[in-house]
């Protein structure tokens, strides 16, 4: 809470509409609250969550999920007005307006950086205190263009410090038009309310922003750049100096060459390949490298075939399942149709470079390998990279009559025309012998240290997501986590035969029964096991694998059923 506002003044103001707010020193700014937040929490309500947070034996109250609207108005007199609006997805539930007075001196008159930092500090502190006092969790924030310009570091700090996804609205989306003669400017609280509502509009029914696509069915990463939650400087700090210099040197070369890199995958979500592609495109845009990521228009029937064929190549499918000639023709026709409709016209990424096409193509999916053939027919000299993102064991595709060999032969008939074959598993022993070693490269999985999978979060945010997870467990009639009362072991992997879900259960049973760590301990003193996976509509075997895991737990390890969450 800002030190210039007492707890009662800030949250229990008897006259919320009072305009004589408290004044305090904020470094380069002097701050004054013109409109206080209206929501009131009584003393008993305030004490109840604080007590339950200190106790592990009682469940904590779940924070209210809210969205935030932030807007800024500045004047020539050094006054900055900040509008805050809290929205629950249906109504605006609270608002406040703060005024910051610039204290320019001979030494600070031109210090725009200090002014921006002071503005950002004030906003971050206000939001953090509101969440703590009102037991709330802001999941997203709509930021006006003016505020984004005056406080360029705000979006990164909202994400890093408060786990709030920032969405910077453009001038057109914010409704900021030239003021016509005789018209009145939009009031600050009205603009902040619009920012909150427009932020909510980007979210889907599952509570996360929906994917958006461009004219080439290209994935608009981070809501077309509106929700960029880092900066190039921050990313550079996540690696050592040598790696940073190398990457920035490559980025500089690509910018000088004015080279566009086009990626093609079968889907834009689910699975590690999509996660890595989101992260790579995000970084490329920050580094000024021209990149585009295209996916075909989905057909559920085709996606089901693709999922089954991947299992055939991995050797985990049911006996007798094949990638038939009819299915091969269906997949080929689907890829060709999307290429003709979306990607080969002038200016599209697959078009020849003489007609504005991309300078480098990366085909990142076995079933999109047909694009290698198309690309080479359109522009034979253009470099094409094919990347294999799962293991195709050589012994599995060495037997001519096998179903895996039949499927691999179709993939390789197109992929062999690529200039470079990149293997996701970095080992020659996990590659078919037909892949020429002189055209082979390796690239292991990579992660984004700043995205929602990997970043560091505060204890309060971790507690919020653990409570959300407990709600999911109760809905699925599973045991809930007892953390921090009990530690837990987690495996996050697809529910596929190749991922060894049954092996994880067997290993956990052996750990509980035979390890020195668990010796002499009661079940309540041992770690729990959590097996998690993303659901997938085009995955025919996922429900079967899940059902089998539950049956194994019930029949073979009944004493562990209260300690395992699937």
From TrEMBL:
Keywords of the record: Glycosyltransferase, Transferase
A Pfam family that the UniProt record links to this protein: TreT_GT1
The keyword Ubl conjugation is annotated on this UniProt entry: no
A GO molecular-function descriptor: glycosyltransferase activity
Domain Trehalose synthase N-terminal, first and last residues per copy: 265-426
Region of interest (Disordered), residue spans: 1-23
Biased composition (Basic and acidic residues): 1-14
Superkingdom assignment: Eukaryota
InterPro entries, A to Z: Trehalose_Metab_GTase, TreT_GT1
Keyword Glycosyltransferase: yes
Family: Belongs to the glycosyltransferase group 1 family. Glycosyltransferase 4 subfamily.
UniProt protein name: Trehalose synthase N-terminal domain-containing protein
Species whose genome carries this gene: Friedmanniomyces endolithicus
